[in-house]
Write a structure and sequence with these properties.
By secondary structure, the protein is an alpha+beta fold. The protein has three helices and five strands; from the N terminus they run H-E-H-E-E-H-E-E.
Length: about 170
Amino acid sequence: MKGYKITVTALLALLALSAAACLFSLAYGAYLDVKRQGRRQQDTALRLRQEELAGLAAQHAEWRKLPADLEQFRSRHVISLDDFAHFRRDLNLCLDDNGFRAPDISFTFGRVQGGLQPVSFQFTLNGSYRSLKKFIFEMERKPRMQFFKQIDLNGSGETVVGRFTMEAYLGK
C-alpha cells in the first residue's frame, strides 16, 4: 500500500507541476500577446507618421515649385512695361478689326503692389451690337491679364454706345 501512496503522491505532484507549467505558459503567452499588440500599435503609428511625412514632402515639393510657376505665370499673363506699347497696338488692332476707329483712351496708373501695377483705362465705342460683342470676346481671349471692369451698353436703333472700363496689370 505504501507503493500506491508514493505513486499517487508522485502523480499528484506531476499533476500540480503540469498545472503550474500550463499556468506559466498561459501567462507567458498573454505577455507575448500584449508585447506583440504594442509592437503592432507602434508599427501602425510609424506607418501613419510615414504617410504624413510623404504627404508633407509632396506639399513641400509643390511649394518649392511655386516660385518657378509664379514666374512662368507672370511671363505668360502679366504685361511687362516694355510690352505695354505692344499691348496698346494689339488693342488698337482689335478695335480696327471690328470696325471701330481708335477712340480716345484715358489711362490711370495705380500704385505698384507686389511687383504689379494696375492700369485702368476707359473709352467709348459706337457701333453695332454684333461688333461690340465680337470686340469684347476677342479681348477676353487674349492671354495677357486684362479685364473688363465695367461695360455699359446703351442702344438706340442700329447703333449701340458702349462705355468700357478695363484694367490691366503691368509687371517688371
